[in-house]
Amino acid sequence: MNLPAWIARRYFFSRKKRSFISWLSILSMLGVGVGTMALVVVLSVFNGMEELNKQIFRTFEADMTIAPKQGKRFLATPALKKRLQKIPGVNLLTTVAQDNALARYGNAQTVVRLKGVDNNYLQRQQLDSALLEGKLLLQRQGVNYAIVADGVRSDLSVSPIDILTPLEILYPQSGQSFSVLNPDAFNREAFTVSGVFFIESKYDNFVLAPITSAQTLFGYQPDEVTSLEIQLRPGTNEVDVKQALQDAVGDKLIVQSRDDLNVDLYRAIRVEKLFTALTLGFIILVASINIFFSLSMLVIEKKADIRILYALGATRPMVRRIFLTEGAIIALTGAFAGLILGIGICLAQERYGFIRMGTESSIIDAYPVRLDTSDILLTGVLAIVMTILTSWFPAQRAANVR
Question: What are the ABC3 transporter permease C-terminal domain coordinates in residue numbering (predicted)?
Fold first, then answer.
């Protein structure tokens, strides 16, 4: 029989009347429970936000992107593309010519991000779920089509149904003095709008067009591109393929994964997650300090009992364990209840989405959550460590009673 644990349970559960100390212990338990629950929920929301952004980027960006280390264009020779396509794990290779340009439609105009791609871009099927209106089409029977983002559609009042009004793209000619009054200062290309897509506000100024038209507009040579986008086969090890691609392209080009392109955003989310976790950790610490005060008052109240225990042959380590166990009962009960409630809230939010985003422009209706085992374990360990630290001094004081 574990005598210290039995006595500690008697102190906590078997009081004939509730004193101020017992109510303070209950308050401490509630504080630890609420802090633990909040920490689990908030960390899961940050995990959900990170996962949501990865899904958004996966809808538009490629698995791997090859770009020049200096400048904004490079020569993608047929030999280079053939060498890249032979690398195990490479599924589709898309040549891209991308830059800012001026778009006109009717009497309206706006600055857009023109992205010229070859025909296999649509084979990636990334935009299938993001299409709002029209169809995904870039070329047919010698006609060049453009797929525009919803933000461009709103700025220019574009309609895919109207096949008579062209979308005109203008780009300054190199070597020409810039002047809006000089008609020869711009290269021009006209497109028929085939479809409208919406992913997220970050991509609201994009216009997708055939790469040959974009190269002509930008004044590129036939093999000049701004990047090569590579889609990998499912189940491919991205780290190994990235290294193989880097070895194939040499030192003048850089290979970046989708996460590399958005590393600043992920870093910002993780920093916010860290500071939020520290803030909620202080809340758990405050609740643990309440445990310190309740145990200190309990030691004062139970001095007579402690003397009796010493008279019956109890040792100082045994008395210390009694009050350490008392603190553990308070804290672990609160922490366990907080973990269960936090996990339950996250699972309910993930399935039913009862906490809404509150904005009509959001791409999702409810806050995203994703439970991570490491976060749950970290929260439990944090509560246990704080409990030990705050319970040690009152337990030591009880052991020193004469």
Answer: 280-400
DSSP string of 114-174? EEEE-GGGGGG--SGGGEEEE---SEETTEEEEEEEHHHHHHHT--TT--SS-EEEEEEPT
Using one digit for the tens of pLDDT, what is the confidence trace for 188-197? 999 999 999 9
pLDDT at 293 over 90: no
Given phi > 0 = left and psi -120 to 50 = alpha, else beta, which region is 377? alpha
Q: What is the pLDDT of residues 106-122, one digit of tens each?
A: 889 999 999 999 988 98
Cβ neighbours of residue 254 under 8 Å, at least 6 residues apart?
Answer: 66, 67, 68, 69, 246
Compute the distance between CA of residue 55 and CA of residue 359 in angstroms, rounded to an integer: 20
Could you tell me what percentage of the chain is helix, strand and coil, using 3-state DSSP and rounding each to the nearest 5? Answer: 55, 20, 25
**Tens digits of per-residue pLDDT, 362-374?**
566 677 888 888 8
Q: What is the chain's mean pLDDT, rounded?
A: 82
pLDDT of 292 reads 72
In this structure, what token pair is assigned to residue 91? 């599924």
Question: How confident is the model over 306-314, as a mean pLDDT?
Answer: 71
Residue spans of alpha helices (H) in 157-302: 211-218, 238-249, 258-261, 263-301
Q: Are 248 and 83 in contact (CB under 8 A)?
A: yes
Interval 58-63 mean pLDDT: 87
CA distance 73 to 226: 4
- DSSP label of 38: H
Beta-strand pair 186-197/143-149: parallel
Listed residue (69, 94, 72, 70) closest to 81, CA to CA: 94
Dihedral sign for Cα atoms in the order 351, 352, 358, 359: positive
Instruction: Tally the C-alpha atoms within 13 A of residue 240's C-alpha that lie toward its C-beta.
Output: 9
